[in-house]
Design goal:
Order of helices and strands: HHHHHHHHH
Largest sheet: none
Strand content: under 5%
Distance between the termini: 53 Å
Number of domains: 1
Helix content: 55-70%
Shape: flat
Radius of gyration: 20 Å
């Protein structure tokens, strides 16, 4: 949104709902470590003993991913999107976003970015389980970019191409970061077995 612009609301409860939603977002971000720990406790019974030791990295990485996604959405993605929409305002067509629609778009974009920023965490655990390597991910880069744009089209709260690019850009950056993470987690591992799912009997119990 342009500097000095403001939202409008026409329904009696919209102003109250705005502050309620903002408080809810802040509470969820502050509680992210606890929420992720509960998620870990839910999936832990299905893991092997060696994998259960990864509780702390899981909670830390998912919490950082959630915070990073929320901050990126709030300070970069959402303002850029609103500035793009506001650019169509003119003397004949005035941009006056309503509170309800704007908050709905804000929440959807933030949720999408929180999911997107979990990519490094996912790759970290896949590399720990020897399911992927950095070299394997690098060789799949062109396919990953295609998949990322498809996924961005699904995750975006609207159908315009600009919104899709806003989602796809950081996803590509996070994928490249994930390649580095995979190399650090499993240095020197050959990728010949990385594309094959290991059977339970071949994994450390």
């Amino acid at each position: 949104m342009r500097a000095g612009s403001s939202l409008v609301f026409i329904k009696p409860g919209e102003g109250f709902s705005f502050y309620l939603n903002i408080s809810l977002i802040g509470g969820l971000l502050l509680a992210a470590p606890f929420v992720m720990y509960q998620v870990w406790r839910f999936i832990a019974p299905g893991l092997y003993a060696s994998e259960k030791k990864l509780a702390i990295p899981f909670v830390a990485l998912t919490s950082l991913g959630s915070l990073g996604g929320a901050l990126f959405s709030h300070y970069v993605a959402f303002p850029a999107l609103m500035a793009f929409y506001g650019g169509f305002s003119s003397s004949r067509m005035r941009f006056m976003p309503g509170v309800e629609d704007t908050v709905d778009l804000y929440l959807k974009m933030m949720l999408g970015m929180v999911v997107v920023f979990q990519i490094p965490t996912l790759v970290f655990f896949l590399a720990k389980m020897r399911l992927v390597t950095g070299r394997f991910l690098w060789r799949q880069l062109k396919y990953a970019i295609l998949l990322i744009f498809i996924l961005a089209a699904v995750l975006t709260p609207s159908t315009d191409p600009w919104n899709q690019v806003v989602f796809a850009g950081p996803m590509i950056g996070l994928y490249l970061l994930s390649i580095g993470i995979a190399w650090l987690v499993a240095p020197g591992k050959d990728e010949s077995a990385s594309g094959q799912t290991l059977s339970p009997s071949s994994r450390t119990s």
